Structure formats: C-alpha cells, structure tokens
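Morning, I've got a small favour to ask if you have a moment. It would help a lot if you went through both lines with me. I owe you a coffee for this, so here goes:
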Amino acid sequence: MLENPRSPRVRAVAKLTKRSARAETGLFLSEGPQAVREALTYSPEAIVELFATPTGWDKHPDIRAKASDADVTVELVTEYVLNAMADTVTPQGLVAVVRQTPTSVRDIFDASPRLVAICEEIRDPGNLGTIIRAADAAGADAVVLTGRTVDPYNPKVVRATTGSLFHLPVAVGAELDDVVAHAHAAGLMILAADVKGDDLLQARADGVLAEATGWLFGNEARGLDDDALGRADRVLKLPIFGRAESLNLATAASVCLYESAFAQRAGEPA
C-alpha cells in the first residue's frame, strides 16, 4: 500500500492538477467513482494508473469487475495519499491517471457528423464540462474547442462532464476558421448562439434546426465577437419569456443542442 503523501510518485500525480504538467505529460486526473467507472467502460486502454483506498475499492464491486476485465491494476493507498493526489477535497476513494486522447478536427468532420458543439473562448470549467455533458446527452457527434477555450482536462471540467468526456470525440486547440471550413466542407451549417441573433423559434418553424449543424458558443461574459459571428451562417437567440435578464451559457447551450436533436430526430422511434 502507498502510504507516504510526500513520495515522488504521489507528487507526480498531484502535479496533474496543473495545466503545465498535463501539457508536458499528456495525462490528466479522473476522480471519483463515476468518472473512473466511465473511463474503465469506454477508454480502459487510456488508463495509466488507478489508485483507490481500501474502503473505496470495497465499496464498488462493479468497478473492481471492470478493472479486472480491462486488466487494469489498482494501487491501494491511504486516505491521506489519495487526498494529496486529488484536486477535490473528497475524491470518494478513487483516482485514475488517464492518457489524453483528443481527436483531430479533420477526423471529426470526416465522420459526417450531424450535430457538433463548437466552443470559442469558454473560460469557466464548470460551463465547459456541462456543455460537453449536454452534447453527449443530446446525441451530438463531437465537441470542438478552440485554442482560447479552457483546457478540457482541467479537473473541474472533467468532474462537470460526469464521465461524458469519455463518451464522444473532443478536439482541442483548434482555430475557429479551420473548424468552420471543415464543417462547411462536411455539409454542416454553423449556427451561432448570441443575443444579437434572430429568434430561435422562427428558425425552428423554418426547419433550420433539422439540418446538420455545428452550434457555435462563445465567452460567458462577452459572447461571440463580430469576427466569430461573421463566420456563422445564421445567428440565433433564445427567447426569454419570463423576467430573467439572461440564461447561463451552459443552460443556453443545452437548450440549443436539444432543439437541434429534437428537430433532427423528429419521426424517429423513441
């Protein structure tokens, strides 16, 4: 059992909470039973190390079975060691070190996607993680992050995805011009979500939302700049029916993605 929270091995894992260490090693942390379970289910080959407290390991027989099936060896550690490794205050007994496996923009659009979330300069980790989770739930084919967007392997992003990071392709560090060019070449329309846009309800009535679409979402505070808006085929806004001043970015993105999912899947069996 690993017992020394100051050992070089523990410190190396703990460094992965920092972007510089993640960039240098190509690794990231997946903390807690839900995230570890999804990593073992969908990307077991990417797991480099798996750490667990005896209590955390005993508590999750399904995770033990998945680790055994995937031939992933667990290293038992003390609570102090796990707390020293993790970004969270309570990592719930499980932490995995996982290899980053981003997908290229070219590969995403070569796969003829119908629905893609494109994130331009999103800075809040919780927002990005929630958008990735919403894209997964809405059946999107991929998520593309431009170079000005927060690192998707940030521990706060990973936690906010609740495992969805392992479910669909994610491209990182892309240039918006390149993303739009690939999307158009693949036959996708770019819809920008912005308060300057036309009413989304009218676009729904016009049948626009049923088309293959790349939804473009911008910064939490500033939205999309004029240059980014100029690259969209159409700019749409969500109507506000009540007294709220606006919607949180992740909430608005979730609605947009689901509107497209509903329109694209109309008439399909549930």
Summary: The domain at 8-99 is CATH 3.30.1330.30 (60s Ribosomal Protein L30; Chain: A;).
